[in-house]
Amino acid sequence: TEAMGPEALKEVTEFFRKAKANEIARDAHCGEDDFMCQMQSYWTAPFLPNLLNTVVFLVETSQMISVFFANYKGRPWMKGMLENHPLFLSVFACIGGVIVAAWEFVPQLNEMI
């Protein structure tokens, strides 16, 4: 703290004081019994991606694709997977998107999503 100097220390303490006051005001705004207010505060909070969110999204998407492949009836009741071009291309694009996102082939794309 001595290396910062008194002015920088004053700015830092003022910042933390304001942050704590905002947190207390936000918590006081919603009572413990007000369920709708608490749910609204969850929806208005900004989404911050982290490793857990990303892994859950990628695993869930790959599982949905796998289940879709396993449960698709195909011939003789429906067109085969390769004969139904829109379906095949959309599933192939989804698989490609999961692979690109999981292995970070394009880091700028991962930053955007």
Concise structural overview:
The chain is mainly alpha-helical.
Tell me what the structure shows:
With 113 residues, this protein is mostly helical. The chain has two domains: 39 residues; 62 residues. The protein is 71% helix and 0% strand. It has five helices and no strands. The longest helix has 24 residues. The radius of gyration is 25 Å and the shape is elongated. It starts with 5 loop residues before the first helix and ends with a helix. The model has no long low-confidence stretch (mean pLDDT 82).
Features:
113 residues, mainly alpha, 2 domains, ATPase_P-typ_TM_dom_sf, transmembrane helix, transmembrane, membrane
Residue share in β-strands = under 5%
Helix content: over 70%
Question: Over all CA atoms, what is the radius of gyration?
Answer: 25 Å
Distance between the termini: 39 Å
Number of strands: 0
SS-based class:
mainly alpha
Element order: H for helix, E for strand: HHHHH
Tell me about the largest β-sheet.
none
Which consecutive residue ranges, at least 5 long each, have pLDDT under 50? none
Q: Estimate the global geometry from the Cα principal axes.
A: elongated
Number of helices: 5
Number of domains: 2
If you average the pLDDT, what whole number results? 82
Keywords: Membrane, Transmembrane, Transmembrane helix
InterPro entries: ATPase_P-typ_TM_dom_sf
Transmembrane segments: 51-72, 84-103
